[in-house]
Every structure is written in C-alpha cells, then in structure tokens.
Write a structure and sequence with these properties.
- By secondary structure, the protein is mainly α.
- It is 31% helix and 6% strand.
- The protein contains four helices and four strands.
- The chain has helices at 59-62, 89-99, 102-119, 125-133, and strands spanning 29-30, 40-41, 46-47, 55-56.
- The strands form two sheets. A two-stranded parallel ribbon has the order 1-4. Strands 2-3 form a two-stranded antiparallel sheet.
- The longest helix is centred in the C-terminal third of the chain and has 18 residues, at 102-119.
Amino acid sequence: MAEAFVSGDALHLACGICPSRRFPVGEFDVFERPTKDCPFDPADGHRYTADGVPVCVHPEKVGLPAGRYKSENAPLAVEVHLPAEQAQVIPYLRELLYGAAPVLLEDLIEQASAEIRRMFPDLDPLTTLRRALS
C-alpha cells in the first residue's frame, strides 16, 4: 500500500480525521467545503461520496486544490498566476509555495521561474524564489 499523503507530522494543518492522513494523493477527493455530496458518516467520522470515495473538505489545509482525484481521476495541477505588480510577486509566491502540498512544489517552482522570466525580465527567478521561501 502506498504511503499516506500526510504523515504523522503533528504540525501539519490537515484535520486528524482527514483522508490525507490515511491515503496517498489521488486516492481521495478534495471538495471546497462540506456538501450533501459528501455526507459525514457517523459510523467512522469520515466523509464519503455516494460511491464511497473518501473526501477532504479543507483544500487550504492539505494544500491541494479542490478536485475529484479518485472519483474522476482528475489531474493534480495548480497554475501560477503572478500578480501584475512586481512588488507583490514575493508575497504571492510565499503564500502559494508555503500553502501547497509537497507533491506540487517542483511543478510550481518551474512554473514560477518561467512566469517571472516572462512577466518581469529584470527579476532573477532564483533570487526571487529564495526570497519567497526564506
């Protein structure tokens, strides 16, 4: 069995009953919030779709965008949309990268580097990313 997305790390923001603590990425869905489409099961304290797929209802806590990863095999992807103002790039990247799931970081850093070069040619992507992550 594959390792759970969130390990026993007590510092992680994921809820104690989150499916991310039991399953790897792709083996559960992430909804924006609790809905009737993923009711709470009082028998075990978890949320499931009608098809029995485990559901996380706090995308901001697990660092994954909402998506039907298990039930619809949705691709795991996040797009970088840099702000128009150069002064906002580092705060934007800091929030984006610190809030993202580790599985997304490599792709986000690659996207950010390309977008920095495209939108702000006078900024060095490596220096900018270091500042955002420090």
